[in-house]
Amino acid sequence: MVPARELLLHCRPVCSLWRDLIDLVSLWKLKCQREGFIPKTWGQPVSDWKIFYFLCSLQRNLIRNPCAEEGFEFWTLDVNGGDEWKVEDLPGDHGRVFPNSHVKKYFVTSYYTCLKSQLVDLKAEGYWEELMDRTRPDIVVKDWFAARQDCGCKYQVCVQLLSSGHVPLGTFQPDPVAIQQWSDAKWREVSHTFSNYPPGVRYIWFQHGGVDTHYWAGWYGPRVTNSSITIGPELT
């Protein structure tokens, strides 16, 4: 089949007949099926199959290097206290195996606060302004964190939807999570979905980190990995 962007940019403007054909619901539903976005038995209602197709085709994790495979590449180290951020191999000392066997590494914090962030430019990632403003698709943010069993710690995360001038249009900032010494050291997931946010979102700012609560030299603070930001429909 002809690529979707070619259909819209070069074929649709040719004449009214081509425009009507390219606007057919059945065309975009078929493209979704052929590219594996949905099964043929898909029964959920879709208000606009064309938009649905583009959101599916763009959907991926917008956080780069989420599992520390490239060290600190793509991350900004906003606060680098104590013995600073470090990358370690799973499961780590006094740690637990991660639920996803494909995740091999994590970032770990120290005895003074450590925070790191990424700024996602939505236009650069393919999400044009009209798509975001008219559709306002769900933005799903997830993060994973864990403590060492032998040390208490405090984990925090903040995610903001920003305008072109970096004005916050939506914020997710739950209370910091305090984990006591001799915990189960299990990996825990935090998740939030931004819906019905104002038009004008152009960037997403993601920051997480924490500190150990015993102030031990080394890397005894919360461990974080497998962070993600995805936009669009939930696909199963």
Can you name the CATH architecture of the largest domain? Sandwich
From the 3D structure, determine the CATH topology of the largest domain. Answer: Jelly Rolls
| Major sheet description | 6 strands, antiparallel
Question: Which percent range describes the beta-strand content?
Answer: 25-35%
Organism: Vombatus ursinus
GO cellular component, one term: SCF ubiquitin ligase complex
Domain FBA: 52-233
Pfam families: FBA
Notes on the structure:
The chain is α+β, with helices and mostly antiparallel strands and 236 residues long. It folds into 2 domains: 4-58, Monooxygenase (Up-down Bundle), CATH 1.20.1280; 76-231, Sandwich (Jelly Rolls), CATH 2.60.120.260. The protein is built from 5 helices and 11 strands. It has helices spanning 4-11, 16-22, 25-34, 49-58, 129-135; strands at 76-80, 86-89, 105-108, 114-121, 139-146, 153-162, 168-172, 177-179, 188-194, 203-212, 223-231. Strands 1, 4, 6, 7, 8 and 10 form a 6-stranded antiparallel β-sheet that branches. It has a 5-stranded antiparallel β-sheet with strand order 2-3-11-5-9, with no helix packed on it. Strand 6 (153-162) and strand 7 (168-172) form a beta hairpin. The longest helix is centred in the first third of the chain and has 10 residues, at 25-34. It comes from Vombatus ursinus.
